[in-house]
Automatic annotation (TrEMBL):
It is found in: Membrane. The keyword Membrane applies. InterPro entries: AAA+_ATPase, ABC1_TM_dom, ABC1_TM_sf, ABC_transporter-like_ATP-bd, ABC_transporter-like_CS, P-loop_NTPase, Type_1_exporter. It is a multi-pass membrane protein. Coiled coil: none annotated. Keywords: ATP-binding, Glycoprotein, Membrane, Nucleotide-binding, Repeat, Translocase, Transmembrane, Transmembrane helix, Transport. This is ABC-type xenobiotic transporter. GO terms for molecular function: ABC-type oligopeptide transporter activity; ABC-type xenobiotic transporter activity; ATP binding; ATP hydrolysis activity. It catalyses: ATP + H2O + xenobioticSide 1 = ADP + phosphate + xenobioticSide 2. Residues 342-366 are annotated as: Disordered. Residues 396-683 form the ABC transmembrane type-1 domain.
């Protein structure tokens, strides 16, 4: 019996093997000692900070690219309270210096000091608490506006939060949001425009009242009006603080105490603006390259202008006061970057990611609040098995093996009864011969059992793994088929979708795979056992049979208990996954805010609910499982009692008693063992329901290749007629209100206006990420909704404000721009040259085969942007959509890329969104968007003559 039970444990060994494999990876992470531990208590914590920063002969290469020297002997001294600007071309090492100050990395050689102490000797958490950071690509977390600002400093009051928001020019637009400071910003701030995200990030940095302020392109995402006001706010708050500014717009750093010019990882020039201009060196060239022809003309006609600019770094306070009253902030536009198989969407992923508009105070409240979920459909086991139908040879083989394995136990019962009868024979020779015979039969049964168990385990494991792989492919394909608006919903966040792909697909094996083998085996054993029991003695069989339904009842009860628990657990684990993914994908921001322990605690709290639910129901599960396991022994007691009576009355032989008892009891035990798989089966049913719900969902915007018209030739014109639009998750907030605009073939349309006015929403509608509530959008006279979505997106080349690259090589990222064909290496190089990135790529050790890292982390913002531009150009689109396409570029690169884009625009229809009006002066039509509609349209000269909205924007811009 002991050996038999060990044999029955075989299906469970699979779970141990899987667990060991998973544990190895987990334990590696748990036991890894961080080279730079932000949660440790080691290091000094000085009582105060002056803010003196010093670099001494610092040399640095990123760990993933040790051959590329990013900093080469940098020595720099920053006095307390000074504002020091770092300028230079993209990738020259400016942002690397900012990261070394935060101690995200340690230099390979040389030293970084703070107040005379080497930065390595300081406690990392303490160090980062002294620093306020605003990066080029601001990261917000999926919680309220107030909580996002509060991440800057724990425990701050609402008054402090509002004060910081006012300083960052964010208070006015926040007060216009549906729930004001309690409005959820969405995952990665998807409910906010780029400028609004940036201002909240600035408020978050200001609320912590840091001694050191690091501004890495802090105003790059702001419109002209907001930039001027925020710059004044930053100028005010950095007084008395050590401030390090990384900027491409050199007009914003003129008042800096010291300007440091980088070139290829070395410091070329150091001085004030006036000193460096007199040198007429690298800085002078950068500044003069940034002056537009219009500005040069104005400067010549107004010789006092330069002097005035030097004396007053920014717009004077009175002008700003008047300006701030005129600013009208509309609610954020949202373009979630959903997974999609359309190449044009792939290359635009990231600008805004999908999330929820529900207001919550912290990620944990997502766990605590009840979500309005669609009811999960009932999925029959047969439906799950049908998905595995193409593996029918494996399934049939597995069932056959299971059935054979199931017969071995009743056969064992028969032989057991016979051997007991043999051993009671008085004649020694006869007893020995019969015992040897039955021993041989036992051996044969053992061989059959081994072969059948191998067949069962191998066949079902194979079919189960194939099913898991197939479901993952089908699930991912179903995800990328959905319209972008579907990703806006909270239940379709990145964490939830990853959970479906990884967890649900494999959990379905609980209703297939080796578990099915155990169930078939149990049914076979039980069925044959019942037949044998009734055959050998129907009276004893009928007395013992009633115990079997009790086992089945226990199975049913346990399944019901676990089914409800599995549904709850799945939802909660999804929410926990959201927190984990959000923290890990934004780890630089988390580290900069010193919030590692905060997110670890939030994750632990999120996991607490399923743990508590499991504890509440554990006694019920234990009772049901224990009841099922006890039944065979109760049956054994009754069968022995009644069987003994029948033997005593000579109505039953000794051998038959044990044949009946062993057959039924072992059959009952097999059913009891099948109960152990009830948890897996329950989870499998829930997982199947979730996956099937997704597989059967029909997207609101069908992207299938066969749906819709495909026009021949180029796009003749694009027109938006009286378009009204609200985002699906915020139906009560109008974004576009009767917007109308038109652009003809080969013409350029520029959209200008304040952040959040609806400009990027127009791009989203043209890409058919969404459909308008009313009005029409036409391409070449055809309603866009009648056209094939894939065809439409293939006509468009999109370059967004926040470029996203994939963890592939540079060549693969550029080639990704056109997945409809094989893009040759010569085409990749040509596109790279047009985007002014070829020289940089060639300077890398691996050239175009260099991997860019997750989301392009191995590259600077400007380098990423230029690769994104090359990716758009390689597809040779009919229409170019440029959403702040040069915002992340340094002056030198911007000028060259702007020329490249102008060349690329020749013969193409172009729609440009820009805050820097100097970049769109040559547009055929400039449309000023305000309040969700076009308030002015015309050429630059026409609009300047009107002296209306555009005139005001232009004056502010210059």
């Amino acid at each position: 019996m002991g050996a038999m039970n060990v044999g029955q444990a075989a299906p469970y060994i699979e779970a141990f093997s899987v667990a060991r494999g998973a544990a190895a990876n987990i334990f590696d992470i748990i036991e890894r000692k961080s080279a730079i531990d932000p949660t440790g208590s080691e290091g000094e914590k000085p009582p105060s900070v002056k803010g003196m920063i010093e670099f001494k002969d610092v040399r640095f290469s990123y760990p993933s690219r040790p051959d590329v020297k990013v900093l080469q002997g940098v020595s720099l001294s920053i006095e307390p309270g000074q504002t020091v600007a770092l300028v230079g071309s993209s990738g020259c090492g400016k942002s690397t210096c900012v990261q070394l100050i935060q101690r995200f990395y340690d230099p390979l050689d040389g030293h970084v000091f703070l107040d005379g102490r080497e930065i390595k000797s300081l406690n990392i958490g303490w160090l980062r608490d002294q620093i306020g950071v605003v990066g080029q690509e601001p990261v917000l977390f999926a919680t309220t506006v107030a909580e996002n600002i509060r991440y800057g400093r724990e425990g701050v009051s609402m008054e402090d939060i509002q004060a910081a928001a006012k300083e960052a020019n964010a208070h006015d637009f926040i007060m216009k949001l549906p729930k004001k400071y309690e409005t959820n910003v969405g995952e990665r701030g998807s409910q906010m425009s780029g400028g609004q995200k940036q201002r909240i990030a600035i408020a978050r940095a200001l609320v912590r009242q840091p001694r050191i302020l690091l501004l890495d392109e802090a105003t790059s995402a702001l419109d002209t009006q907001s930039e001027a006001i925020v710059q004044q706010a930053l100028d005010k708050v950095r007084k008395g603080r050590t401030t390090v500014v990384v900027a491409h717009r050199l007009s914003t750093i003129k008042p800096a105490n010291k300007i440091v010019v980088f070139n290829k990882g070395k410091i070329e020039e150091v001085g004030t603006h006036n000193e460096l201009m007199k040198l007429q060196g690298l800085y002078y060239n950068l500044v003069t390259a940034q002056v537009s022809p219009q500005e040069e003309k104005e400067n010549k006609s107004s010789p006092q202008k330069e002097k005035a600019e030097d004396e007053a770094a920014f717009i004077d306070g009175e002008a700003l006061s008047e300006l701030s009253q005129d600013i009208i902030e509309d609610l954020a536009s949202m373009s979630p970057a959903a997974l999609t198989r359309s190449p044009s969407i792939r290359q635009s992923l990231k600008r805004r990611r999908a999330s929820s508009a529900k207001a919550v105070k912290s990620p944990v409240r997502n766990v605590q609040e009840k979500e309005e979920e669609e009811a999960l459909p009932e999925v029959a086991t047969w439906e799950i098995i049908k998905k595995n139908a193409s593996e029918w040879p494996y399934i049939v083989g597995g069932i056959l093996g299971s059935a054979i394995q199931g017969t071995t136990i009743p056969l064992y019962a028969i032989l057991f009864g016979e051997i007991l009868g043999t051993l009671s024979i008085a004649e020694e020779e006869k007893a020995r011969n019969e015992a040897n015979f039955y021993a041989l039969l036992f051996l044969l049964i053992g061989i059959v059992a081994a072969l059948s168990m191998f067949m069962q385990a191998y066949m079902f494991s194979l079919s189960g793994e194939i099913l898991t792989a197939r479901l993952r492919k089908l699930t991912f394909a179903a995800m990328v088929r959905q319209e972008v608006g579907w990703f806006d919903e909270e239940r379709n966040s990145v964490g939830a979708l990853c959970s479906k792909l990884s967890g649900d697909a494999s959990a379905i094996q609980g209703a297939t795979g080796s578990r099915v083998g155990t169930i078939v085996q149990a049914i076979t054993t039980l069925g044959i056992s019942i037949v044998l029991a009734l055959y050998y003695d129907w009276r004893l069989g009928l007395v013992t049979l009633p115990f079997i339904p009790f086992v089945l009842v226990a199975v049913y009860l346990q399944s019901k208990i676990l089914m409800g628990q599995s549904v709850t657990e799945s939802k909660v684990l999804e929410n926990a996954g959201k927190i984990a993914i959000e923290a890990i994908t934004n780890i630089r921001t988390v580290a900069g805010l010193h919030k590692e322990e905060h997110f670890a605690n939030e994750y632990s709290k999120a996991l607490l609910k399923p743990h508590e639910e499991a504890l509440k129901k554990s006694h019920l599960r234990g009772a049901a499982f224990g009841f099922a396991q006890a039944m065979p022994f109760f049956a054994y007691a009754v069968s022995m009692f009644y069987g003994g009576y029948l033997v005593n009355e000579n109505q039953l032989t000794y051998e038959k008693l044990f044949k009946v008892a062993e057959a039924l009891i072992l059959g009952t035990m097999m059913v009891g063992q099948a109960v152990a798989f009830a948890p897996n089966y329950s989870k499998a049913k829930v997982a199947a329901a979730r996956i099937f719900q997704l597989l059967e969902r029909r997207p609101a915007i069908e992207t299938s290749s066969g749906v819709g018209l495909r026009l021949s030739g180029h796009v003749e014109n694009i027109e938006l007629q009286d378009v009204h639009f609200t985002y699906p998750t915020r139906p009560d907030v109008p974004i576009l209100n009767g917007l109308g605009v038109r652009v003809g073939r080969g013409k350029t349309l520029a959209l200008v206006g304040s952040s959040g006015c609806g400009k990027s929403t127009i791009i989203s509608l043209l890409e058919r990420f969404y459909d308008p509530k009313s009005g029409r959008i036409t391409i070449s006279g055809e309603d866009i909704q009648a056209l094939n979505v894939g065809w439409v997106r293939n006509q468009l080349g999109l370059v967004s404000q926040e470029p996203v690259l994939f963890d592939l090589t540079i060549a693969e990222n550029i080639a990704y721009g056109d997945n409809c064909r094989v893009v040759g290496h010569e085409e990749i190089i040509r596109a790279a040259k047009q985007a002014n990135i070829h020289s940089f790529v060639e300077s890398l050790p691996q050239g175009y085969q260099t991997r860019v890292g997750s989301k392009g982390t191995q590259l600077s913002g400007g380098q990423k942007q230029r690769i994104a531009i090359a990716r758009a150009l390689v597809r040779n689109p009919s229409v170019l959509l440029l959403d702040e396409a040069t915002s992340a570029l340094d002056t030198e690169s911007e000028k060259v890329v702007q020329e490249a884009l102008e060349r690329a625009q020749e013969g193409r229809t172009s729609i440009i969104i820009a805050h820097r009006l100097s970049t769109i002066q040559n547009a055929d039509t400039i449309a000023v968007v305000q309040g969700g509609c076009v308030v002015e349209a015309g050429t630059h000269e026409e609009l300047m003559k009107k002296q209306g909205h555009y005139y005001d924007l232009y004056q502010t811009n210059h």
